[in-house]
Design goal:
331 residues; Rossmann fold; Tumour Suppressor Smad4; 2 domains; 18 strands
Length: 331
Amino acid sequence: MAEPVVTELEECTVIANPAAGTVGEELVREVAARCGRHTRVTVLRTTARGDATEAAREVVGRPPGDGLRVVVAVGGDGTVLEVVNGLMADGAPGDRAALLVVPAGTGNSGYRSYWGERPWQEAVDQALGAPGNALRRLDLARVGELDALVVLGAGTGLTAEVLRGARGVPQRGRARLQAGLERAAASYTPYQGRVTVDGTVAHEGATMFVNVGGGRHRAWQYTVLPHSVLDDGLLDVCVVGEGTDPVQVPALLRTGRHLERPGTVYRTGRTVVVERTDGRPLCFEHDGELVPYEGTKATLDVLPGVLPVLCEPRSAAPAPRAGAAAAEAGR
């Protein structure tokens, strides 16, 4: 990927979603004050679905200014997705604007992908204090059948059923998603499916789940794609098939040991096709949102290096993919 052009900060626009899990006025004021140590700040609060998209689009659409405009998404993974849709609405924002995430939702997996477990206050200070060091152009994906952008990742099967399982769960935050996964796993039956990566069939048969991305973690605590790199121009794909009891999956995903299970396949590629071969609709989610979809196929294409994000600087060399080789042995 080409290195971003480093520019001075022009302003921060804080887009806060009051409907997200932990967004309150105290947090919004704290975020604005923290950003205000580094540049001028505007705060916008959403009131309806789509507001964050329109606000981010307006920031990018202004006439060119003196430097980098930072859009700070305060909310969960759904808020981040809306903001990214706004940044990308008229094409990649180039050097005009960059995303910065403050985690305040249920899963907050996007934030963990960008900053690990670092407190958001430290992340904001590092990002805005030295934007040239933190600015990276990250990959996205697009689902062809839905014409939808994917930021964090997409899933079918059990990892999508989590969102149905979480309905009605009294817990909040990560505990809610954990309970949803455990509830879904207790009654889950694998579906008959096929996964094709860059034109080659990687898996066919009983399918526990497929996850494509993007970020390494889902629902914060589950390491679904342990070897994923945010800006390598590739989508990571993990398929868990036969050979694993669904009830074992939550514990396996916390450590990434699902890659060691028989029937698990791990690949990378630029185009991934996920199909259900029994004629029934896919249970499909992306970025933590269950998609109302009656189709049997989803095609994901990588969009390499299109989204400027302020995040942890990339290490000199990507982590080795030794676990991927082990997973491939299960083919």
